[in-house]
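Annex B, item 7. Sequence and structure tokens for protein A, then protein B.
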Amino acid sequence: MPPTRRTLLATLGAAALTTAAAAPGRRPTAPAGKHRPPHTPGTPVPLHLPAPTGPWPVGTVALHLVDDSRPDPLLPSKPYRELMAGLWYPAEPGTGHPTAPWLTPAAAADWDTYSAPALGVPTGAADWQGIRTHARTGAPTARRAGRLPVVLFSSGDGGSRALGTTLVEELASRGHLVVTLDSTYETEQVEFPGGRVERALPLPDDLTPDVIAALLAQHCRARLADTRFVLDALDRLTRGHRPDTGTDPLPDGLAEAADPTRTGMLGQSLGGAVAVQLAHDEPRIRAAADLDGALLEPVATSGLAKPFLLMASGTKALHTEPDWASCWTASTGPRHALRLRDSAHGSYTDLQILLPQLLRHLPLPDTAALIGTVDPRRSLAAQRTTVTAFFTRYLTGRPTDFLDHPGIHWPELETLH
């Protein structure tokens, strides 16, 4: 049987997992919050996402996008590229619009069957389908928020766009339009309108370092083309074109609010590599933030002449990662490199928040290797503060000194040199 997508993820994350700054026997603590009813043994464990902290309520809508100008780069027999994206934005307060699920129903069922067991969570043990975001589907755009700077979000290799929800909602609540994107046939599961789920393609049997490098390069190229297509769709949106959402109408006021002249990109793992490379290649991207992603050529050698944020995990530093070091040295734009103490590669995903909740009820194996031992509440708060400060400074021009002295506010953050 061909290896699963998780096999590749585990291989890619091996270095990060073995360098996670976790003391033997320690486990992440479950995040505190509102009192929850006791869990009934034998029923799926309920899971919750923390609310964003910005001044705006959040709205969201899914987009079904079809690029018929090229065959699918990962499935060449398909003569077009089909994608699912999400738009997250500041919304008017009110009711009448339901909150969006973390994963759509069919994708959540697929995650429960195939993805969760790879994390040590048995099928049926967690209520993945019951996780709600804090965004209301189709809510009207907040008029007083004005023109919205745009941030594109790209997840790690094989990861759903949902894995960045806690950061995405924070940016939207603070006045950004965030566009999240799945990479069809690479992402473990992508649900399209009507409940159709497209799964990741099987991987080669022999995952040698050269094969993995070739796969990463292929996935990176596909994502770069996908993201350029989304940038074009945003340009058309602001000119009055209404893309097909597949289900819900485009929210009132969103097309007029988007400001594609102020666009940045945020990514985790492979998504971080894509963010930095796209900023290098694409004039429409003004700033890039990389959450613990190794960089690929050519930007790893040529560097970046635009604002660049790098957030590391574990014991990584600029001098321990050759691709980071070469890019850092060659870059001429504003640069910020931080490390989150006691974190691991998965700390920069929603698993940082979700897995500790499961630890109250399930004996999950080796969780610290995936999300470290950093307090999940402080980890998320530090990430939200850092990412928001970065895009506030470089997309809106509003002054903030947080990036110059992050450790004063969050001791969990240390500056890398």
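Protein B:
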Amino acid sequence: MKRRDFIRFVGGAAAWPYAVGAQPRHVWRIGFLSGKSEPSSLAGTVYGEFLKGMNGFGYIEGRDFVMDWRFAAGDFSRLPGMAAELAARQVDVIIAGFTGAALAAKKATASIPIVLGYTADPVGTRLVESLAHPGGNITGLATYLPEIAAKQFELLTAVAPRLTRVGILLNPDNLAYVGMLKTARGAATATSIQLTVLEARSTDETRHAFETLDQQVQAVMVVPDPVYDPPRSVVADLALMYRLPSIHPYAEYAALGGLMSYGDSLGKFYRRAAYFVDKIFKGVLPRELPVEQPSTFEFVVNLRTAKALGLDVPATLLAHADQVLE
């Protein structure tokens, strides 16, 4: 063997294992479709909780995955276009921030996996075939169950036993309200309480809804919606301003000044969404991952708000609270 050929052989042999070891790491692309406004910082928000969830499974943003965020800022008409953009960018998975986002994503793609970050009644809205066998390319979390509206109604009447008129705040553009409204109407009829529907599609409409209440209602139930969700505190602030006891679907509302919440934590749901993303990245098909729903619900009471409203929360009710904010 000529010296030149030998050097070339040795050099190639030495470089070969290095080249194999230096194969570029696959970087996943995650699309996130939200109905909310884009926060100035992700830290401390439910989106930050999703990133923490990914970290918990060993994924580092920028090294193992990149995020492709889309925020509709309460204008749900933008969702179909945003979902189509994510599909065109061929993201590896789409996280749907609420029911409307999931429906838009489903229309945009039948092949890219879609993870439900939080949704109400995914079977009733035909996002999945069933919770146990979702079918298609969608799985994730059924985070708000319409039947808990009856429990929320019960808690309101326990705090204010003389209630005769209750308002239910909902966004008519968000199908999440359908099941809860049906359940709330049943609970109202059973207790001979008048239920008034308050529609609001934006923060301005929410303020207007409270301004026009006058003496129509004595308390308010809130249906989950990106327009009302934390970090916005406008609903809790308005309820306090108009001296209305309020009950909310997620613990974050009570921390912002709502009187009570019964449900779970948005942050907890988004952290759990990372579990589905991890499974999908490891090769599991969405249809093989059952949709999860809450097995426990958290009851939170804000005593500061109760005192501001002049309400004396029964000790028996406080004893059943998972968290009391003083």
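Comment on protein B: Confidence is low (pLDDT under 50) at residues 2-19.
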